[in-house]
Amino acid sequence: MGNSALRAHLETAQKTGVFQLTGRGLTEFPEELQRLTSNLRTIDLSNNKMESLPPLLIGKFTLLKSLALNHNKLTVLPEELCKLKKLESLQLNDNHLTQLPASFGQLSALKTLSLSGNRLRAVPAQLCDLRHLDVVDLSKNQIQSVPDSVGQLQAIELNLNQNQISQISVRISRCPRLKVLRLEENCLELSMLPQSILSDSQISLLAVEGNLFEIKKLRELEGYEKYMERFTATKKKFA
């Protein structure tokens, strides 16, 4: 991409607060964005070939609300990313991430987090520190179990489709705001699904197709009627 094209993008971004440069084969985060650290509210650099983010630069976008880096080759995220106190949406689908930075819980404004199609082997414990998190997508990773810490998660929707989950902590039923739980295409036996999800949780949509049991068996579990009451009430609300 020529300098003049980049300059045009930068000029537009200066006026709009939005910098979008997708599918251009970029191997590095554009250093030129340094000039716009106090302007930008949205950055979208999806569908490129970036393997890393510049630590010193990324932490300076203090007004950034949305960062999309889907379909890159990121293997690690710098701790400096966690300084973005206004960030509400972070899209990192289809990268090579195996974990999140230790201080990820400092992204205090984060509402939407997409990490589908990465290489996570566990549900990151840092997510439990995010008080405003609404939607978390961890589908298409290599997660094998859902730990006790999940009970602290504030999310309304948790997507764990297409992992290798065979165990789920009963504490998932304690999630105060969790309404939608997606567990399709995992390795769950029916006996490993905590019945309290049905009988004693806020969850009103439980998606479990494609596991190691027939869906009709779910209907025989104790608490299924209670779950259906929540499911029907929610459906009515959105009808």
Automatic annotation (TrEMBL):
Keywords: Leucine-rich repeat, Repeat. This is Leucine-rich repeat-containing protein 57. The lineage of its organism: Eukaryota, Metazoa, Chordata, Craniata, Vertebrata. InterPro entries: Leu-rich_rpt, Leu-rich_rpt_typical-subtyp, LRR_dom_sf, LRR_domain-containing. The keyword Repeat applies. GO terms for biological process: intracellular signal transduction. The keyword Repeat applies. It comes from the Eukaryota.
